[in-house]
Predict the 3D structure of the following.
Amino acid sequence: MSFEQLSYFAQIVASVGVIVSLIFVGLQIKHNTGALQRNEHNSTMAQWTVIRQAIAGNRDIAELMTAGLNGERALDAADQLRLEQMLAEYAWASFHIWDRTQRGVFPKGTFEMTGWATPVQPAQDGAWRDLVAQRQTYDLHSWVRRGKRGDP
């Protein structure tokens, strides 16, 4: 084997080595992306767990949300504030699911199956509409108000 042939063989081996290392790096990136998506999911579920446990573990909060959203009774200022804070947390957690679904971190339909299921019924009630109308003064980006990603 001549020196020139040996050089060609070394270039072929080096090229195969580069291809194998690129495949390895691609697999590592795919694995790490999956781990990051799982961490995003766990973070979102931790946010939801706090809200769900507050409602499920505290009858007072459950009654407050039921009465407030259904308009069963007039709320005093303290209860109104408590309800608004719970709904703000609920909306913030829902936004995170929606945003992560839009960015492809969560599969399509995740928001509709999880973050949107509970507020659908209260949204039909007058008390919910009144509460949202009171909060229209907040400076939200237009894409948040419209419920879709785009230029603000």
Helices lie at 3-57, 59-70, 77-102, 110-113, 120-123, 126-134, 142-146.
